[in-house]
Amino acid sequence: MNDSLKEPITLLVCALGGEGGGVLTQWLVDAARHAGYACQSTSIPGVAQRTGATTYYIEVFPVPLARLQGKRPVFSLSPVPGALDAIVSSELLETVRQIAGGMSAPERTAVITSSARTFTTQERMQLADGRADSADLLRVVQAFSREHHVFDMDALAKEAGTVVSAVMLGAIAGAELFPFDRTDYENVVRAGGGKAAEASLRGFARGFEMVQTRSPAGWAASLSTDASAAEDMVGSGATGTALPGAIAAGFPAPAHEMLALGHARTREYQDEAYARLYLQRMHEVLAGERAADPQGGHAFAITVEMARWLALWMAFDDIVRVSDLKSRASRWQRVRQEVKAGDDDLLRVEDYFKPGAPEFAALLPPALAQRVLRWDRRRVQRGKAPWALPLKIATHSVSGMLALRLLAAMKWLRLRGSRYAQEQAMIAKWLAAVIEGSRRDWRLGHEIALCGRLIKGYGTTNERGKENLLHVLDHLAHGPSPDSAAEAIAVARNAALADDAGQALDAALVRHGAPPRPLKAQPIRWMRRPPGAPGKA
């Protein structure tokens, strides 16, 4: 082919903030120049709060400058949908976003993507499970790419002790997208010098080998291995937590994994006695399910679901819990890794808290807690804002860490607090409803157990979820027909998770013969007009 008729090789790189997308682009530009090729790169910044990635567009003319006889190719400043030779992305959903925008052409574009997921703001905002299904995303990549390489770049980067951009560079080199030698890439990385360059070269080698040793057409193997890797990342994989043999003997095998996690969580949250209370409650649930399904035809799904949601509810967040999590050594190590702090770097970490009257009252005895809450309500009725204590704690300092550890050591106070008593009373009511429902009909018990999904978050979100659950139990769980009660609870639960305003839930309640939730009084706050402000028109 005549050199003058060749077109540039086009590559779109997608990276999240802090992943080194700019460094990766500079490496590619330097590698092209080192190899003697003309190139150009542009970038489009992303936006904050995980609503998009920063994209980098790179064009390389595949003819060495020495053969162009002084001529210079003309490059484009932005990618053209359907005209990309390759897309490289560090996050699976970002890859699919680019494909949805028409960037990938099935007959032309090679796709190299990580199976890792960093959940978007929209996924996190959902009351129910808002995560995009990784298997569906992988199938989109398969359908809209000429060839595809899918593996967990994030895991390889952590193994190498580097950032994901180094692994992405290795994958680009391994896929032979550009007419460069491996040494061209390695030389530009090595030019950085120091330990960072050594770690980047390790990450580069892992990405290179991953692509080189995998056939682009080997989608079936890629789908099975990387879908499981993505599943592990979202919290469904094994964690290494083992259920003690004596405890495991009392429960069916399908419940062991979730029960092990729940037992470990409640024990770590409070103590061994609290973990025994969790197991005692789970034995009651199992007995109720066996009464409805002695043969285990439903794989003990009620017990499995209760093992999950009961542990989460019993380990509710409070001041003690937050202080414990904020002051753990593992958290400090994670922060150092996230900011890429070296051994000689000074790191300051300041945590901001704003506990209000309910948080302090939670650790007080019920009588005293009610006095504190009444005092705060009177403040609000007088037009003042709810009382809160803004705090800024320097976690990197000895005094700041001691303050958090002192609060974290107050687990004994939690058991004597008003919130503990309230939470345990509500848990007992839900537990009794599950057991009673299971004895009436297996499906009814299962639907009530699934209502544990309503309890999530903290503050008003958590309170609203508990109020919704109790309202459903009071008005729908005792219907004359188990089938109709189970159906009504399923509809109400899905409606409660559909919107936080509760309009869908109220409509579902009325439709099934239950009263809507009672209106909650909201204080009216009168604001004094500032001096000099214009009056009414």
Q: Look up the CATH topology of the domain at 3-233.
A: Pyruvate-ferredoxin Oxidoreductase, domain 3
Q: Averaged pLDDT, please?
A: 87
CATH class of the domain at 3-233: Alpha Beta
Structural class: alpha/beta
The CATH homology group name of the domain at 3-233? Pyruvate-ferredoxin oxidoreductase, PFOR, domain III
Strand fraction: 5-15%
| Largest β sheet strand count, sense and barrel closure | 6 strands, mixed
Count of DSSP H/I helices? 24
Keywords summarizing the entry:
alpha/beta; Pyruvate-ferredoxin Oxidoreductase, domain 3; 6-stranded mixed β-sheet; 24 helices; globular
Overview of the molecule:
The strands form two sheets. Strands 2-3-1-4-5-6 form a six-stranded mixed beta sheet, sandwiched between helices. It has a two-stranded antiparallel ribbon with strand order 7-8. It is built from 24 helices and eight strands. Among the domains are: 3-233, 3-Layer(aba) Sandwich (Pyruvate-ferredoxin Oxidoreductase, domain 3); 418-520, no CATH class. It has 537 residues and is α/β, with parallel strands linked by helices.
